[in-house]
Amino acid sequence: MAKQNYDALASKIIELVGGPENIEKVIHCITRLRFYLHDEKKANTEAIQALDGVAGAVYNSGLGQYQVVIGPAVADVYDCVIKQLGTDAAGDDAQEAATSAAPKSEGPTSFLDLIKKGFQTLIGTITGSMIPVIGLLAAGGMLNGFLAILSEPSLLGWISAKSDTYVIIQSMAMAPFYFLPILVGFTAAKQLRSDPLVVAAIGAFLVKPEMAAFVNVKHVEHFMGISLNANFFGLPISIPSYAYSIFPVIFAAWLARPVGNWLKDHLPASIRSIFQPLFTIFIVGSVVLVVMGPAIIAISAAISFLINQLLQFNYAISGLLIGGLYQVLVIFGLHWMVVPLVAQEIAQHGQSNLNALINFTMIAQGAGALAVAFKTKVASLKGLAGSSALSAFAGITEPAVYGINLKYGRVFWMSNVGGAVGGLIAGMLNLHMYGFTGSLIGFPSFASAKDNPNNLWIFCLAAVATIIVSFAMVYFFGFKDSDTQSVKAPVAKKNVFKEAVAEEK
User: Fold this and answer.
1) For 482, how many CA atoms within 13 A lie in the half-sphere containing its CB?
2) Lower CB density within 10 Å: C or N end of the chain?
3) Helix (H) or strand (E) holding 68
4) Domain locations in the chain?
5) Is residue 295 within a helix (H) or strand (E), and if so which, with residue range?
6) How confident is the model at residue 340 (pLDDT cuts 50, 70, 90)?
7) Residue ranges of the PTS EIIC type-1 domain (predicted)?
8) Does the pLDDT of residue 424 top 50, yes or no?
9) Three-state SS across 376-401?
């Protein structure tokens, strides 16, 4: 498609939404241009919908946006719009995911409404912070999956897990996850209107090797079951591993705005450029360490205790509950705190019942994303859902959870139904797992000729049940294209994903 063709389409769209003087800001998501107009009534919706290359147009009063549906070429059309309007019209793309995940309302009318709105805002903030990095996570997850196939002796076994090649490729794959606090710090700060570079620096501080080393400190004090592994100005504190985590740095992005604004108002302009970020990093970083560290440790200890008690009580009931609810931990980045439990089980017993149950929650989220890929007619969403499903089947669920399932809330919960079914079957049939690698690609971890020759077949049965239930629940009850806040029936008759402008003959 010739690039100049988008200029004409962009010019017509600008004209039909009321001209440059009616446009306050414009942003875009994966399929739509989203205009903030001074007067939405000036937009000629019928004429815009008739444009070749536009799949529809609608004003969303809840978001205060006039939305023009383009499809895969939306970024190209957006660039042309900004070129014609000037960069002052460019809005903040990062806030789009949050606004679409948590629509505006007239305000809570009861305590339950307040709780609901707070939860929606929290989820909207999390997904809004994560969606800009979903492509990186999906790519890393798929690369890690390919590496597992190449290195697993029971599969291809072409690359030794002890080789330098393996280490290099795995580092490529897992770098976005390990340094997630830096990436999310930047995107969360853009969304929450704090300084992205300052918050990214706080994220870097949290995953610095010297900080990670505190986790392995052996001689520590304890307070109410919390290990105090560091000392900060004479105050004993607990420092967990912040690698792979997102919630602490989102908290930092939220706190950095009022702190940074106060410093901006009170520091002399001559020293502000240096001392504002300096004090913000120190103050916010210190609060994160003193508040979030102990909170994460306490929550993790409580989760570990409950999971242990549940596993000891009944394996089948554990499968039902853990299979249905474990991915909630993924939302807040707390799932990495369960890894020590899995490692302890494998070290003591040579297998892990807990990891076997967790495995089906990964498959379930992948199957849910796959159902969205099959059902949606939105080409860009279809592609994202498909790649996210592959990543989940390779053991990395974050792209599916944050990019698709959680964003369209019912998809997440309907997928969890399949996880609960798979976990229940695994518990009832006493499934064992002998390794760490999970999801579909982790099937060699279930092979055991000694302990239980049928163990691998039990895994296959539970995995198939998980996929069928999750896929069906999402396909029939969890998702429809209108959830994407796309256009209504008359517009849907058009081909949403035809090329933005026909090739000139």
Assistant:
1) 6
2) C
3) strand 65-69
4) 4-91, 186-301, 313-490
5) helix 293-313
6) low
7) 137-491
8) yes
9) CCCHHHHHHHHHHHHHHHCCCCHHHH
> Are the C-beta atoms of residues 200 and 186 closer than 8 Å to each other?
yes
Check: CB of residue 311 under 8 Å from CB of residue 345: no
Segment 168-176 long-range contacts (CB within 8 Å, at least 24 positions apart): 169/143, 170/144, 172/140, 172/143, 173/140, 173/141, 173/143, 173/144, 173/147, 174/140, 174/144, 175/140, 176/133, 176/136, 176/137, 176/139, 176/140
Backbone angles phi, psi at 156, to 5 degrees: -85, -45
Please name which of 279, 292, 268, 312 lies closest in space to residue 211, comparing C-alpha atoms: 292
Residue of 24, 73, 67 whose CA lies nearest to 49: 67
SS3 of residue 270 by DSSP: helix
Reduced to 3 states (helix: H, G, I; strand: E, B; else coil), residue 163 is coil
Torsion sign, CA atoms 399, 143, 416, 465: positive
- How far is residue 502 CA from its own chain's centroid? 35
Q: Among all residues, which ones are annotated catalytic?
A: 29
97 Cβ contact partners less than 8 Å away, ≥ 6 residues apart: 29, 124, 127, 128, 129, 130, 131, 132, 191, 407
CB atoms within 10 A of CB 138: 25
- C-alpha 30/C-alpha 17 separation (Å) is 20
The residues facing 76 across adjacent strands are none
Note the pLDDT of residue 218: 67
pLDDT digits (tens, 9 = 90+) for 4-37: 468 889 999 999 999 999 999 898 876 788 899 9
Let me know: does 365 contact 474? Beta carbons within 8 Å: no
> Are 75 and 83 within 8 A, CB to CB?
no
447: pLDDT strictly greater than 50: yes
Fold of 4-91: Gyrase A; domain 2 (3.30.1360)
Residue pointed to by tokens 């978001």: 63
Mean pLDDT of the chain: 80
Q: Name the band, by pLDDT with cuts 50, 70 and 90, for residue 464.
A: very high
